[in-house]
């Protein structure tokens, strides 16, 4: 190190006329061709290799990261392997046994925060993947492909990887992703169902209006829509009766409501 704290390298190496590797203290400092520091020595980079034009794989402690020279992309070294998945998208394996994958945009480093236990490369514009013990599909941009069902006018259920959300026709959220299923109850209510774990052992339900507002003030295990539009609510073996506009008629009690 000189008197100004600058690294005096043991060796330098130029890669693709884009970056200069300053090697010292068993680590690498990465600079551009104008000697501007891109990755400092303190990051403990141990090796650098070309990935695709303009991008480089960085390695430290047997983990890989990504560097984009022109766009400033700098993905921390946290992956056991990184490979090109599709045009503009890389695939990082986060565990040594390769059962946790994450997609990385070569523009900004993020496609999704989701991690997948299995993922194929795209074929004919889509790729099969597995998440939360459920199989689903991704497009070439790494975006999840939804199966859509219109529940009511302007209200659409979208299912992906075993979970549901409800949106309006513009894609604005009504009920967020994470429900096991959503069904239309009558003509103006949504019955949202969720499970306690991935094996769907215990189901709980919540009733919403078409705006996504909860209209029965508690979760329950089952619901019967009666002929007059009233609602028989069952929770833990107890029953309640609500009118068609969700006004309480009979509160939860130990004896089941008989109608």
Number of strands: 25
Uncertain segments: none
Structural class: mainly beta
Largest sheet: 4 strands, antiparallel
- Listing every helix as H and every strand as E from the N terminus to the C terminus, the arrangement reads EEEEEEEEEEEEEEEEEEEEEEEEE
Major beta sheet, strand line-up: 1-2-3-4
Strand-residue proportion: over 45%
Shape: elongated
- First-to-last CA distance: 87 Å
Instruction: Estimate percent helicity.
Output: under 10%
Averaged pLDDT, please? 89
Helical region count?
Answer: 0
Rg of Cα set? 27 Å
Protein described:
- It is a single chain.
- The chain has a 4-stranded antiparallel beta sheet, with no helix packed on it. It has a 4-stranded antiparallel beta sheet with strand order 5-6-7-8, with no helix packed on it.
- The model has no long low-confidence stretch (mean pLDDT 89).
- With 259 residues, it is mainly beta.
- It has strands at residues 11-15, 19-24, 27-32, 37-39, 47-50, 55-60, 63-68, 74-79, 81-86, 89-93, 101-105, 118-119, 126-131, 134-139, 147-152, 155-160, 163-168, 173-179, 181-185, 189-195, 203-209, 222-225, 231-235, 238-242, 248-253.
- The chain is elongated and about 85 Å long.
Which key terms come to mind for this protein?
259 residues, mainly beta, 53% strand, elongated
Briefly say what this structure is.
The protein has no helices and 25 strands.
Please give the structural blueprint.
Blueprint lengths: L10 E5 L3 E6 L2 E6 L4 E3 L7 E4 L4 E6 L2 E6 L5 E6 L1 E6 L2 E5 L7 E5 L12 E2 L6 E6 L2 E6 L7 E6 L2 E6 L2 E6 L4 E7 L1 E5 L3 E7 L7 E7 L12 E4 L5 E5 L2 E5 L5 E6 L6
Antiparallel strand pairs: 1-2, 2-3, 3-4, 5-6, 6-7, 7-8, 9-10, 10-11, 12-13, 13-14, 15-16, 16-17, 17-18, 19-20, 20-21, 22-23, 23-24, 24-25
């Amino acid at each position: 190190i000189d008197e100004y704290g600058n690294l005096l390298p043991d060796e330098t190496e130029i890669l693709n006329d884009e970056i200069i590797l300053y090697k010292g203290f068993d680590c690498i400092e990465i600079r551009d061709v104008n000697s501007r520091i891109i990755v400092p020595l303190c990051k403990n980079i141990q090796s650098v290799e070309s990935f695709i034009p303009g991008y480089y794989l960085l390695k430290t402690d047997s983990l890989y990261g990504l560097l984009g020279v022109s766009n400033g992309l700098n993905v921390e070294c946290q992956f056991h392997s990184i490979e090109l998945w599709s045009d503009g998208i890389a695939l990082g394996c986060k565990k040594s046994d390769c059962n946790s994958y994450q997609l990385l945009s070569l523009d900004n480093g993020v496609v999704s925060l989701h991690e997948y236990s299995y993922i194929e490369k795209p074929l004919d514009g889509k790729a099969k993947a597995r998440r939360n013990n459920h199989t689903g599909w991704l497009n070439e941009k790494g975006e999840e492909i939804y199966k859509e069902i219109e529940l009511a006018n302007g209200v659409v259920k979208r299912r992906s990887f075993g979970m549901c959300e409800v949106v309006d026709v513009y894609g604005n959220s009504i009920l967020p992703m994470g429900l096991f299923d959503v069904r239309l109850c009558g003509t103006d209510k949504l019955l949202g169902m969720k499970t306690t774990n991935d094996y769907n052992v215990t189901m709980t339900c919540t009733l919403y209006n078409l705006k996504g507002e909860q209209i029965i003030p508690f979760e329950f295990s089952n619901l019967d829509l009666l002929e007059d539009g009233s609602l028989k609510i069952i929770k833990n073996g107890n029953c309640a009766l609500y009118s068609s506009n969700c006004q309480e008629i009979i509160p939860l009690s130990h004896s089941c409501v008989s109608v």
